[in-house]
Amino acid sequence: MCEQKRTIPVVLIGGSGYAGFEAIRLLLRHPAAKLVAVFGPPNELGPMEQFYPLLSKQVRLSQELFEADKVAATGAELAMFCVPHKVAMSCVPQLRKRGLRCIDWSADYRFSDRAVYEKWYCPHEDPVGLAEAVYGLPEYFAPQIKKAGLVANPGCYPTAATLALAPILQAGLIEPTGIIVNSISGVTGAGRTPSLKNHYPERNESFEPYGVGNHRHMPEIEQNLKAITGKEVDLLFQPHLCPMDRGIMSSIYARPTRDVTTDQLTDVLSAAYDGKPFVRVRKGDVLPATKYVAHTNFCDVAARAAKGRVVLFSAIDNLIKGASGQAVQNMNLMFGLDETTGLY
């Protein structure tokens, strides 16, 4: 582990959303990083305690209007973008030219193929950055992340699904087609902007599927698994929204390539994540659950052989391992720190 002899100055672009709030809290307690400024859009400016009263007397920063020169003047070495897609690609190039390294929470830099991004999102305005970006899943891409100037923080659903599936696919124990990823998310995954769908009377005591066959995270999961295993993967991703604040629970169903036992599947997961500090393989009677990972950067995974199928389970906190915690984990790697710094 490299000894850190200085403080990493960090700016956050987009501090008024749920994931931005979590990023602020993580940076506040980080022993080797300092949040020096927060920037946002014209309609979301002002003291951070105005957005989140919990931050009173903890953060004296105000969210200011984003300007590249103003960001550079802070002396920051890292910019964290907790913003919707389309926003980052218009701002990241300006900061990269000024020497800042960047971590982007949005989908703007997650796809290696520009055409795939544009099919699922919108025209891409920064092909140079897209070619430079490293996908920020530390369990598989840590060597590249350490040297990266621009890291694409993974989606929350893809993080949970990829970490469960990749070792089993890599071992050749399941077919790479016909996989079903059935996932459930808390309401914070939809962001903080009010909408009828997330209004309390609509959401409370209601469990609802959405994005049937056309959710944007489906091609991201498939891309991840191909990059890790070298195999073309075809899967159906089906998300659901449930009445809890935070968390993602994924149940994944696949066809085995041969007779396989629960113990064999569990051994493969255990071997894959030995030495990976934020993946816990659940064994015996304990299965992953959102309560066991809430407010942590852990991903809990488990496997079962049942009725001729392989069933995998994965749970994360969508705001931590699915967003801000993973971004801090990536920051640690980029600046030569132990990846667990500030996350336990």
Features of this protein?
15 strands, seven-stranded mixed β-sheet, alpha/beta, Rossmann fold, single chain, 344 residues
Structure description:
This protein has 344 residues and is α/β, with parallel strands linked by helices. It is 34% helix and 22% strand. It has 13 helices and 15 strands. It has an 8-stranded mixed β-sheet with strand order 3-4-2-1-5-6-8-7, with helices on both faces. A 7-stranded mixed β-sheet has the order 10-11-9-12-15-14-13. The longest helix has 15 residues. The protein starts with 7 loop residues before the first strand and ends in a 10-residue tail after the last helix.
Main sheet makeup = 8 strands, mixed
Helix content: 25-40%
* CATH class placement of the largest domain: Alpha Beta
The CATH topology name of the largest domain reads Dihydrodipicolinate Reductase, domain 2
Mean pLDDT level: 95
* Physical arrangement of strands within the biggest beta sheet: 3-4-2-1-5-6-8-7
Shape: globular
User: Could you give the distance between the termini?
Assistant: 17 Å
CATH architecture identity of the largest domain: 2-Layer Sandwich
Instruction: State the order of secondary-structure elements, H for helix, E for strand.
Output: EHEEHEHEHEHHEHEHEHEHEEHEHEEH
Helix/strand class: alpha/beta
Work out the helix count.
Answer: 13
What is the β-strand count? 15
Nearest-angstrom radius of gyration? 20 Å
Number of domains: 2
Percent in strands: 15-25%
* Low-pLDDT ranges: none
CATH homologous superfamily placement of the largest domain = Dihydrodipicolinate Reductase, domain 2
